[in-house]
Amino acid sequence: MSSVKFENVTATAKANIYFDGKVVSHSIETADGEKKTLGIIYPGNYHFGTELAEEMVVVAGKCTVQIDGSEDCRTYSEGDAFKVPANSGFDITVTDQTFEYICSFIS
Q1: Is the C or the N end of the chain the one with fewer CB within 10 Å?
Q2: For residue 72, what is the domain's CATH number?
Q3: pTM
Q4: pLDDT confidence tier of residue 19, bands split at 50, 70 and 90
């Protein structure tokens, strides 16, 4: 996935910073009201909780994910996507290089 471009969006300049700066994202809203975050995760192990359902698309890098309540642990790389149910969460591990993603919030 070389480069993803969004047009006609409202971007929030203030970053969302988690885990001492090892996870950073910026929020955007599309012209039709769709909310997304564009982010980067540095190598490490992290847990995220979800309020809304999410779809994560891998822009660059590789990660291993385990959705809360699942015994499956899957690896995702550039171009792959995974969904996380609302009011749930997931463990994500990034090992080699930075991981870049687009997170869409699904209503």
Answers
A1: C
A2: 2.60.120.10
A3: 0.92
A4: very high
Mean pLDDT of 79-103: 96
The residue segments making up the domain with residue 72 are: 15-106
What is the C-alpha to C-alpha distance for residues 27 and 49, in angstroms, rounded to an integer?
17
Is 2 inside any structural domain? Answer: no
Distance CA 36, CA 29 (A): 6
Amino acid at 104: S
Distances in whole angstroms, Cα of residue 45 to Cα of each of 19, 34, 42: 10, 28, 9
Q: Is residue 65 part of a domain?
A: yes
Structure tokens at 72: 């499956």
Cα–Cα distance, 80 to 42 (Å, whole number): 18
Helix (H, G, I), strand (E, B) or coil at 52: coil
C-beta of residue 97 within 8 angstroms of C-beta of residue 61? yes
